[in-house]
Amino acid sequence: MTNPPTPPLAGADRPAKPVNQWKTLDKDLRRISQLEQATQFVGRPLVAIGIALVFIVFCGVAASILAGGANGTLIIVAAATIGAYMALNIGANDVANNMGPAVRANALTMGGALAIAAVFEISGSLIAGGEVVSTISGGIVHPETVADPDTFIWVMMSALLAAAVWLNLATASGAPVSTTHSIVGGVMGAGIVAAGVGAVNWPTMGQIAASWVISPVLGGIFAALFLAVIKNRLIEREDKIAAARFWVPLLIGVMCGTFTTYIAMKGLKKLMAIDLGTAILLGLAVGVAVTLLTRPHVRRQSEGMENRKKSLKKLFGLPLVISAALLSFAHGANDVANAVGPLAAIVHTVSEHDTASQVTIPFWVMAIGAAGISFGLVLFGPKLIRMVGTEITKLNPMRAYCVALSAAITVILASALGLPVSSTHIAVGGVFGVGFFREWYAERRARALGLQKGKPVPQDERGRRKLVRRAHFLNIGAAWVITVPATAVIAALLFLLLDRLT
Fold this sequence. Notes:
Elements lengths: L22 H45 L5 H21 L2 H9 L5 H19 L3 E3 L14 H25 L5 H17 L6 H34 L4 H27 L9 H27 L6 H7 L1 H36 L5 E3 L2 H18 L1 H10 L5 H21 L5 H27 L9 H6 L5 H32 L1
Antiparallel strand pairs: 1-2
Helix pairs in contact: 1-2, 1-12, 2-5, 2-11, 2-12, 3-4, 3-13, 3-14, 4-11, 4-12, 5-6, 5-11, 5-17, 6-17, 7-8, 7-14, 7-15, 8-9, 8-10, 8-11, 8-14, 11-12, 11-14, 14-15
GO cellular component, one term: membrane
Membrane topology: Multi-pass membrane protein
GO molecular function: phosphate transmembrane transporter activity
């Protein structure tokens, strides 16, 4: 006979629950941990700002040493610190256009993109950066109207600071804008205050205004055309791997040949003089050679791959990394000189006590530009890289490849036709072009397959199907349009302030 179950203990005989003696301490430690995490989150941007300030101060100290105590050393130091600030903002804003598509397409990690961009921007600046630069930003202001050295210095100083401030504001708001247009607007605004409205070369300003439309439209058209070719010749083919073995080496060859022409025209001025015809022949030779050399590599890489779109994306990874590196080299060779041109002009005017339509850029001035761009990119660039690469439209390696190739081809075509274009506007226009082409293609395919069955699609559903974020389209377009007027106003106010103080 089994024993009846033991009744539960009552009262004092029931075992007591374990008591957490450290309950209060645990709560306090949890609060301290949350406070530490919040402090780290808040302090993270302060670390970047602190490093940037150290760099600016270092550039000022270096400029004072290099000036050697000559007359006007204080002005050179002030200009060097402003130039360093400008270079930081170029790195934070302008370089994102080269790296954003590659990062979004997962061809590069954020760290890898920052490292490649920093190395190739510096290389382009120091190896192939222009020795001579126009001091009036391409003839925006007639040189004879600001012939007085003191007036000229304050015009350049105001333009440089105004452009840097505007780039800083644009980066903070997530808008990629043109560095060259920022400088142009600054020179125009300070020049008008210094010498009147007649001092401005208005036909040149009209060409720059036209480039607001020309640059993104050309970039978008070329990017859409390349994507159409890839879809027609690769993605939609029944045997995608066989098509890739023929077309991918050819597309890599086109890319390398195009960038060879681009760099020969825009990035080798310092090393040798190359005309357009020679640059095109050089690019053609390189393109044919690369096509032949990469065919065995692509064949080996594609062996065993599944016959689907995902396999094609892997074949475009390396070309996309190469294109991002070459874009950074070309940007460093071409745009850095424009950015530090006002600083070089100030150094020349202080040293020689006269103004000149063109001046030689000292090595230390170019070094400030190159180093500043790298620091700015690493410290503040990820925000714009993410925006360009992820928030406008979805990019994969093939779409990002189209954006990079369209940027190089558009610059070559514009240079041949004498059209003033912005590399920033072209790259972002290419991203929009890819997105709008995808929208058009998706709607066309849906109609062809009869998915809509003739029924009207509600407006909210049509909006949900859009592949390009309209808010970014409007915001970026507005930032482009107001860049020149905004920097002109800022520079004008700065010139008035400096003129009053001196």
